[in-house]
Specification:
Layout (H helix, E strand, L loop, with lengths): L1 H25 L3 E5 L2 E6 L7 E5 L8 E8 L7 E8 L11 E11 L6 E11 H6 L8 E5 L3 E3 L2 E6 L3 E8 L4 E6 L13 H4 L7 H24 L1
Antiparallel strand pairs: 1-2, 2-5, 3-4, 4-7, 5-6, 6-12, 7-11, 8-9, 8-12, 10-11
Length: 227
């Protein structure tokens, strides 16, 4: 009896897996590019499943892959729009060096239907080098009422780009930022000024020495006068 139930459960899981995979194959996400704006259309997505789409690295926003995991079943088409922007004047810029500002917006899907979003992007090595950026400090930052740095990992690099992956709970305005390289001098290194530094002599000792010299001169002159 238990054996039959186990077989039924296994068949159910296999069928469910087949349905999910079939949906991903039959209804893949598609993208179009117009005026440097990337539009991604997701036909359907099941709760707990993930759909991903690779994007052209030549796009000005430098997003190379967008993956969305749904928290609930979603049968209607929904759209994600990605474009590079100039930061609005009413938003304070991040404190670190900014590579790009990117706006990612959605329509046709509520935030509660989104489980998580994974974003892959690249940063040009020429920008990293010319701005003296620590490549491991680069982050994708999301703006709500303030800038929040998202978990971001360096996953690869070549002669032209450094490749990163980040996760976000929802879409908004984003900034790709990096921190400058800080070079710390060795602990045992002393500067030339430190080597040539003359120790300070307390004023009290200077006064004592002056009094002794004056008294010595006074007694010397007195002895000569007496003689």
């Amino acid at each position: 009896m238990f054996k039959n139930e186990f077989i039924i459960i296994c068949l159910f899981l296999l069928t469910l897996s087949y349905i999910v995979n079939a949906d991903i194959v039959a209804n893949p996400a598609v993208s179009t590019v117009k005026n440097d704006q990337v539009t991604i259309t997701f036909p359907t997505i099941g709760g707990g499943s993930t759909k991903s789409i690779e994007l052209n690295i030549s796009n000005t926003n430098k997003i190379t892959e967008f993956s969305l995991t749904a928290s609930i079943d979603f049968d209607n088409n929904f759209i994600v729009i990605i474009k590079e922007i100039t930061l609005s004047l009413n938003i304070t810029a991040p404190s670190n060096n900014t590579y790009k500002y990117i706006e990612m917006s959605k329509s046709g899907i509520a935030s509660k239907a989104i489980g998580s979003i994974s974003i892959k992007f690249v940063v040009e090595k020429s920008w990293i080098d010319s701005n003296n950026i620590n490549k491991t400090s680069i982050r994708l930052n999301r703006y709500t009422t303030q800038w929040d740095a998202l978990d971001t990992n360096l996953i690869d690099e070549d002669d032209t780009y450094a490749y990163y992956q980040s996760t976000t709970p929802d879409l908004s305005t984003f900034a790709i930022t990096g921190e400058n390289i800080v070079i710390m001098p060795p602990e045992n290194e002393t500067t030339q000024s430190q080597q040539l530094q003359i120790p300070e002599i307390p004023i009290l000792w200077i006064g004592v020495a002056t009094v002794i010299i004056v008294l010595a001169v006074f007694f010397l002159l007195r002895r000569r006068t007496t003689a």
